[in-house]
Amino acid sequence: MELQTLKIQNFRGIKDEYTFEPDCGNAIIVGPNGSGKSSVLEAINYLLTNNIRQLDRPGMGSVNKDEIIRNVNADGDCVVSATFNDESADDSVDVQRSVDDSRLDPPQEDLPDSLLHIIETAQQGQHILTRDDLLDLIITQPKSRRQVLSELLNLPDIDDRRLSLQRTRRNLEGELEDAKAKRENTFERLQELADSNTDEEHELRKALLEEINGLRESFGGDPIETIDPESVRDDVESPLETLSAQALRRERPQVELQNFVAWLDRLEEELPTELERVNSLLEECRERESADVSAKRLELLELGEDVIPPDADVCPLCQQDWDEKMPLHEDVRRRREELREFQSVLNHLDELQQDIVNRLEEGLDHLTYLVKELDEDEYPEVEELEKFERRVEESLDSLRGGLIHDRSFHRLELPICEPEAPKIDIEDKRIVRASNSLQSRTEELDDLSEAEEEYERIDTIAKRWQEYEELDEEVDRLRSLLSDVETAERAFIESRCEVIGAIYEDITDRVESYYCSIHPDEDGTEASIEVTDTGADLKKEFYDAGEYPPHSVFSEGHLDSLGLCLHLALTDYLQHDEKSLLLLDDVVMSVDQDHRLQIARTIAEEFADEYQIIITTHDELWAEQLRSQGALYGGSKVHLREWSIDDGVKESRSYIDVYEQWETVEEAMADDEMERAAHELRYATERMLQQTCMSIGGKVEYDPSGTYRLSDFRDAVSGRLNTLTGRAKDNLNLHADDEEEMWERVDDLDSEFGKVLNDVGQQLNKVNRRVHWSPGKWLTLSLDEFEEVYEAHKKAYDLLYCDECGSSIRYEEFDGYCELRCNCRNHYDLRWN
Q1: pLDDT digits (tens, 9 = 90+) for 735-756
Q2: What is the mean predicted confidence (pLDDT) over 171-189?
Q3: How many Å apart are CA 425 and CA 678, to the nearest integer?
Q4: How far is CA 738 from the centre of its chain?
Q5: Are 796 and 685 in contact (CB under 8 A)?
Q6: What is the pLDDT of residues 581-615, one digit of tens each?
Q7: For 2-127+580-639, CATH number?
Q8: CA dist., res. 392 & res. 312, Å (int)
Q9: What proportion of the chain, given as a percentage, has pLDDT over 70?
Q10: Which residue from 726, 744, 721 is spatially nearest to 734, judged by alpha carbons?
Q11: How far, in Å, CA of 812 to CA of 831, rounded?
Q12: Domain spans of the chain, in order of start
């Protein structure tokens, strides 16, 4: 499915209506800066995605997109429509999108799969490359690069799963540490109960059993061999009917209760102030984030401050003039200072968060102990303690998740606080009343007799031992789970690295191939995208000095060509066998002429016949290089003139391609307009010889005045072809069966081009008389005489150009062989060692 016709109404720089007709082929749009070239590509992108990429860039948040999408000087609907044609299925589809509606008509579910593929590719963003996009994947931070690549390669769920395993591991680590701490506390209490310092579990159990049996003996009970709370006091009579108040008669529960009450008083007094400080800092962070003051930009700005001269007035990335009141270097320094201040705020926020966590963990320790020690049946206040314990745990969970983890900086609201204020919510002071009630009961209790304490001690030891065994089992369970999750995480990461690494290796192989074809002097240098825990590191070999991040050692032109290679490699990988649109918007501005020619060859050889390529440029030479190397694959070239607010985008008819020029000459001849025919013929011949000269590497003698004659290009083409055919015949063996036919074809070309180009030279005088001589001197040239001139020039075109692919004959050298051919090899395909 390919784009046949695009109609644009009142969209961006296009006023009224403009029709772009690539006719299902490749195309190049040539025009000066600001002529509206990008508006055509934006219209295609808008039609397919309902989006304009330029308006999604940083700093565009306050822009009213509907107003900017519409042409500012036009009335009427803003609509983009297109006809896509599938030649293999002999089927065409008309689609459109209006700014007033924004929905695709017809909807996607009614479209054929081949067009849906184009739309899906466009929604990935891999169908179009602009100058702003070139450096994004080259100089971006590794984490951001991996996010972009993951989205393009449809791998985001892989990272989600890795993060899910990571979160599970961290949660288990936390649970394991909590269980181990509780087990340790219980072990210490058992040491106190057994009056033993042993660190061995079996020795402690032995000491506890001796203590229990000693107490049982004092009450007339027999020795036991197991510590079981259900049976530890069997056959032992209680000295009193009830011992329910035993817990608060002991010293430690009393101390824990006092500590909890004191902690609660401090919490009510100090936590509101701390929460106000935290929420104030969170508000400041939100404001800074909304102002695009992001900590992830700090490293790039620090690098920018080092490389931007103090007096710089041009942005080093986009090469645009810096029009702000503040100098560029000072603005970068100011932004860097803002980011450092922001980082300081984040650090302070982390400290406050940890202080609150420590405060709540202290109270939770007191609560946990009291809830376990006090019997709820005899101490109804325990219900309030348990409720408050859960709210403290929930508050800790929300804090341990992190205040700045996802950079959303939501207001901090803790379950122990009222929803809209930092005041502590204690449910009408119920927790205070409960703790005061427990203290009062402690003060009113009489001392238990020694017998009652010993009787209670039997049960306490058994319960604490059972608690220890349960905690020990929990530690073993969590440790086993953690080990399993760690193994799964390692295996997942290894598999992920293997899978993604293979994908990245495939992509970087393509990048290296494209890059070396553009920079043959660097053939053999390698590029790599390495999967790491923190991102995707892109590195490029710099001659023999090792691998470096590209932006640290390469020039702007090299970075642009590397960015183009990476984009093309991703495009080719992602689209596999289902090729789609490939839009390139003025992407070689900083690349020199020779390397642009190599880029044109790469596009011609690797993409021109498989993708529908639409390229914009302001550079006429780049357009000619694309044409001569076959990147258009016979497609059209559109020239735009200077844009104006009144007329919008308009095509210029002042330039016609060589292969179209002959029709113009024939039309002038048919109308008996000899003067116009002579002008058109000379123009066509000059362009033809210039392009051929460039394609075969012909050399024109330098003229300081910059004025070259048509004969200069003819002589350069003739001399170069003479050299190349001579080399070919010298290297081809006339007597070898496999080379005899090639030798004869080279000899035919050698015999033909001299005669044809000589005829052009002989007829050139007649053309010049029509073009340069004063009126009256050329009127004697009849139509019949001019037809002889036309035929001589047309024969030169037929010799040097291929009607199939529209390219001129071109010369290339490879390892071990040379070629003289057209792009499609139908007209010429000559090869020799």
Answers
A1: 676 788 888 888 888 888 888 7
A2: 91
A3: 95
A4: 51
A5: yes
A6: 888 888 777 787 778 888 888 888 888 888 888 88
A7: 3.40.50.300
A8: 56
A9: 72
A10: 744
A11: 10
A12: 2-127+580-639, 246-447, 658-832
